[in-house]
Amino acid sequence: MTQTPNAAPMPPHPIVALDQVTKRFPGVVANDRVSFELWPGEVHVLLGENGAGKSTLVGMLSGLQLPDEGGVLVEGREVRIASPARALELGIGTVFQHSMLVPSLSVVDNMALGGPWWSRPDRAGVARRMAAVCAEIGVAIDPEARVGSLSLGEQQQVEIVRALMRGSRVLILDEATAMLTPKGAEDLGALMGRLTRLGIAVVFITHKLNEALAFGHRITVLRLGRKVGEIAPERLVALGPAAATAEIVRLMFGTHAGTEAAGGPPRARPAGAPLLDIEGLAVDDASVPVAGIDLSVAPGEIVGLAGIDGNGQKQFAEALAGQRRLAAGRIRLGGEAIERLDVGGRRERGLRYVTDDRLGEGTVGSFPISLNLLLKQVGEAPFWRHGIEQPEAIATHARRLVGEYDVRTPGIETAIGKLSGGNIQKALLARELSGQARAVIFAKPTYGLDVQNIRATRQRIREAADRGLAVILISTDLEEVLELSDRVAVMSRGRIVGVVDNNAEARSRVGELMSGVTA
Amino acid sequence: MSDTTRIGGDVLPARRNGARRERARLVAMALLPVLGAIVLSGLVLLALGVNPVSYYGYVLDRGLLNPYGLQATLTRTGPLLLIAAGLIVAFRAGIWNLGGDGQFLLAAVIVAALGPLLAPALPVWLVLLAGLAVGALVGAAWSVLPALLKAYQGVNEIITTLMMTFLGVSFANVLVKLAFRDPATTVPQTRTLAVADRLPRLFDTTVSSGLLIGLVAIVAVHLLMTRTAFGLKLRIVGANPRAAIHAGLNVPLLTMATFAISAGLAGLAGAVEIMGVQGNVRADWNPAYSLTVVPLVFLARFNGFASIAFVFLFSVLSIGGESAARRTGVPNFFTLVVVAILLIMLGITEYLDQRRRAAGK
Question: How would DSSP label each residue in A377-425?
Answer without folding.
Answer: GTT-TTTEETTEE-HHHHHHHHHHHHHHTT---S-TTSBGGGS-HHHHH
